[in-house]
Give the backbone structure.
Amino acid sequence: MASSKQLLGMIRSHAIGDEANFFAIAEHIAADAAKAGRGRMANDIRTLVGNLQDEAARRRPASRPTPIFAPRGELASILHASYPETKIDDLVLSAPLERRLRGILREHRERDLLEDQGLEPRRKLLLAGPPGTGKTMTAAAIAAELGLPLFTVMLDGVINKFMGETAAKLRLVFDAVSVTRGVYFFDEVDALATSRGTENDVGEARRTLNSLLQFLDQDKSASVLIAATNHAALLDPAIFRRFDASLAYERPGTDEIRRILEVHLSRFTISGVDWTSISADATGLSQADLVAAARDAARVAVLDHGGTICNDLLRASISERAQLHRN
Ligand SMILES: Nc1ncnc2c1ncn2[C@@H]1O[C@H](COP(=O)(O)OP(=O)(O)OP(=O)(O)O)[C@@H](O)[C@H]1O
Ligand SMILES: [Mg+2]
């Protein structure tokens, strides 16, 4: 049941028109109910809050920006809030990965159907793969597609050299996870989830890992938790089963190389491009490198080539990017 403090807080928020706080308290009550094993009540509250928020958004004049929940106090140095507009269609991914992501989004959109059968959408996702392949972009796209705020966990704020403080900061993050529904993004999670610290801080690394494992186990919220890493091999094996899905990101293959370049050069006339040679040149580059190469080529096309992109120009931009990796 809601505590008297929560009820008073809700009445007060309602009276002064503090919509964000009103809904935050309702989420809190739902989280308490879930913890107390009242899953049905928690779901009912969350559904009602979701519907009311949609209704409130519809009634809000279009010119008024969506109120952003801004982390305050100590949380401000640990969580960064944003409302991304990235769409899943903006991501260029291999077909199997795209299918899996769309499947997860669908589970959230059709959660009522799942919940009627005692199931829940997958909420804890681990994204692993090399730099620049779309992990951060995916977290943003999931938030945007589900209409949720994206809370990026700032590692500098969480990891603390003082013993035990990292666990305390992690607790703050997980308190926010249960109180404010959102997508929580733990980038470079290997910094928190490895048991192998440097010689001096093996103990602290283990404590941090254990708290993270415990918080992940205890989390019964409606938030989506996304962790990303470039170094899956460094992760402690115990972390993997805490996630509902693990998604492997890879550098683009021939088809994705072409799609990325075409999307980012769609405003230009592309003439005589030999995609086989381009794709050979681009082997080993990430999606981020290709976006950058496309922009490089676009700049030259605008200034020197009357807006046309030819094979040589594109190949030159790609080799320059590849060169950056060799330096
Ligand atoms: N799969 C992709 N589809 C389309 N664009 C992409 C993709 N991956 C990367 N990009 C482009 O590269 C930029 C950087 O990508 P992103 O930050 O998502 O990479 P990352 O995998 O999180 O890398 P890191 O491991 O270094 O954090 C994106 O903003 C986007 O412009
Ligand atoms: Mg990233």
Summary: The chain has a mean pLDDT of 88. The pocket of magnesium ion (ligand 2) is lined by residues 135-136, 187, 228 (CB under 6 Å).
